[in-house]
C-alpha cells in the first residue's frame, strides 16, 4: 500500500485520470449494450409485465379463485 | 402450485403519504416566505429565527428530505411489496423508520432556525442528527433488503434496482460527507478543509440530487407510470441501460459545481466530461417514460394524473438537458453564482419531483381507499395552476440570471466596471423576483387544492389497512448460475450480490476523484503567509456559519477580469487550508466577501461601516435586500467553548501552538477590545464580548493573508496632490447631478444631506480633516483615505463627476441640516 501511495503522491501527468475514467466507462457501456441486445425475449417480457402482476385476488385468473 | 396467502401493509403507505402532504405544505410555505424576503427584506421579520440565512436551509431540507423523502418512502413501501409479492419484511422496522424520520425532520426544523448548522449545502444538520439519519436510513435499507430476500418472484424488477441504488449510495454519500469532529452537542467542524471539503461536499451535494431526487423517483416512474397507464414500460431493455449508465456516470459529475474555482483542472475536466455524458442515460429514461404512453395519448387528455406524469417526465428531460449545458465551462462562467442555478433546481423539484408525487397520490389514494378521486376537475385545475406556477417561477429567474451576470461582466469603454456597485445589479432583478413570488404562490395554491382533493377522497372511501393477496411460493433457487443462465438475470435474483456491484459502480467515480485530492500534494500549493484564524476570527467565522451568510455571499473570486476588478485577487487553493468547513458559497445574492479584509482592496470597509450595516442595512442603502442582524450586538460569544474549539482545530491539524487553548480567551479579548475601542472612536458603544465584534474581526481578516505587503503600503500612503482636471462647475444642473451621485454613493457614510453619521464626517460645516482647498477635496474623493474609511472613487466615477462632487460638497457648507454631526478636523475659512 505504501508503494501505491508513494506512486500517487509523485504522480506526474495527472491528466491520466479523465482518460482512465472514460476508458472504464466506455468498456462498461459497450458490454452493457452487448448484454441487453442478447437478452432472452421471454425474460424481458416477463420483467416488463411485473408492475401489472401484484397477486391481488381480483386480478387473479379464475383458476386461482376456484382454489379458494 | 400451492398458493400462499398474505397481505400488503397499506397503513404504513398511508402514513408516509400524510407526512408527505404535511411537510410539502410546510416546505413550500417556507419557500414562499424566503422568496418574499429576497424582494422585501421586511419579511425577515426582524427575528434571528426567521432571517433568510436560517430559513433557506430549512426550505431546502424540508422540501428535499421531508416532502420528497416521505414521498419516496410512501411509493417504495407500496410498490416494493407488490413487485415482490410479499408484505414488508418487518412491520416494527417500518414504524421505527416512519417515526424516526419524522422526528429527524422536527429536530432539523428546530435546530436550523436556532442557527445550529454546518453550512454545507443540503447537509446543514449537525452531528447528532447526522447519526440519527444514518441509523434510520440503515433501518430502511434493512427492511427493504429483508423484503427482497423473502420475495415470491424470481427476479427483481428495474424499479427495485433504483431503490437499491438509492439506499446504498445515499448511505455512502451521507456518511463520507458528514465526517466531523464535535465541539459541543450542536457544533462540529468538518474533518475536511478547504478544497477537499469543497470537493467532498459537491460530490455529496450533486449526488444528493442524483440519488435522492432522481434515482428513487425513476424507480417510482418505472412502477407507477405502467400502473397508471395500464401498459408495460416502453422498453425494458432501455431501462437496464438507463439504470447502469446513470448510476455509473452520476457519481463523477460533482466537480461541475466548482468550475473556475480553486480546484485542480483535472478534477474540473472530469466533472465536465461526465456531466455531458449524463445526458445520454437521462434522455434514455425520459424517452422510455414518454414512449410508454404511445398510442395512449387519448388517455392523457382525460386523465389529470397522466398529465402530471407527462409534465414530470418532461421536467426530468428539461433539467437533465440543462444540467450538462450548465456544466460546460463557458456556460458556467455566466450561469454560476446567479439565479440560473435556482431556476434549474426548481424545474427539477417542482416539475419532476412535485408533479410525479401529485400523480402518484392521485392514483394511490383512490386505490387504497377503494373509491374514486373526489374531483377530477379540481385535479385538472391543480395541473394548470402547477404548470403555470412552474413557468412563472422559472422563466423570470432565467431572465434575472442573464441580466445580473451580464451586468457583473459589463465594462465601460474606459475599461471600468459599468456597474461597480453590486447593489445596482440586485435592484435590477426586483421585477423578476416579484414574478417569481407570483409563480410560487400559484404552485402553492395548486398544492392546497391537491391536499383538499386527497383528504376528501380519503374521507369518501374505506381504508383497507391490509390488502389480501396470494401468490405461489418461490421455489428454492440455486446460488450458482444455472446452466445457460446469463449473468444479468442471475444477478437480478441475487439481491445482496447485486447491491455489492451497485456499490462498486458508484465507488469508482468517488475514489478516482477524491483520493488523489488527498494524496497528491501539488493539488493544493501551500502559501507561506496563510495563517490559522485568531480565536476571535474563529468565533466570528462560526457566527457567519450559524447565520447562514454563505447562503448569499460567496468567498470565491474566480479568475475573470470582471471579478478581480470588482473584488480583488482571485482565490487560490492554498488560502483555504485551515477552513473547516469551506465557505465558498454557490449563489451571490450579495457580493463576494473573499477580499473584504484587504485594506487596499475594493471591498474594504471600516469597522463602523460593518457595524452600522449589520444593524440596519436598509438605513445605509434603502434598496439593500440584506436582512438586519441587530441581535448580534446583544448576544455574547460563549468564551467557555473557545478553548474547546481551538483543541478540536488542533486535532484537525490546524497548527495552533501547544497550550494555545489556555491563552486563547485572553488573546480573543485583546483583539475584541481593540475593535470595540476602534468603534468607540466612531461613537459606537459595544462591549468586546458581543458576537458582532467577532464577526467584524472575521470579515476584516478575509483575504488579508495574501495581501500583507499591500497593507503595509496602505499604512504609509503616498501624499498625493492632484490638481483639478477642469474648472469647478457652479451651474444648477451640474450641482443637481452631483447631488444625485451623493444620494447614490455618499449618503451611507455622510448622510442624505451631508450631515454626517457615525461613519463619516459632517460635510456641511467648515471643518476639514484633509484640507479645505478644492484640490484637497478632489484628491480625497479620487484617492480616498483608506485607513480612515474613505474609499477611493476614481475607479468608479469620471473626473467630471468627481469635480462635480467637489463643487457640491463646497456648496453644502453652512446649510445646517438637522442632526448634524459635531465638527471634526481643522476650521477652514473661504
The largest interface is: A-B, 40 and 55 residues
Number of strands of chain B: 6
Low-confidence residue ranges of chain B: 710-717
Main-sheet strand order of chain B equals 1-4
Task: Sketch the topology of chain A as an H/E string, one letter per element.
Answer: HHHH
Oligomerization: heterodimer
The shape of chain B is: elongated
Q: What Rg of chain A, in angstroms, do the CA atoms define? A: 25 Å
Number of domains of chain A: 2
Count of runs of 4 or more consecutive helical residues of chain B: 29
Could you characterize the architecture of this molecule?
The complex is a heterodimer of chains A (68) and B (830). The longest helix of chain A is centred in the middle third of the chain and has 22 residues, at 16-37. Helices cover 65% and strands 0% of the residues of chain A. Chain A contains 4 helices and no strands. Chain A has 68 residues and is an all-alpha fold. Chain B has 29 helices and 6 strands. Chain B has helices spanning 11-39, 52-84, 91-114, 127-149, 158-177, 194-229, 236-250, 265-277, 279-291, 297-302, 304-327, 329-335, 340-368, 376-409, 422-427, 430-460, 487-491, 495-519, 535-546, 561-566, 607-615, 617-620, 642-651, 660-681, 691-701, 708-715, 732-750, 774-783, 799-812, and strands at 3-9, 180-184, 187-190, 466-472, 767-768, 826-827. A two-stranded antiparallel sheet of chain B has the order 1-4. A two-stranded antiparallel ribbon of chain B has the order 2-3. A two-stranded antiparallel sheet of chain B has the order 5-6.
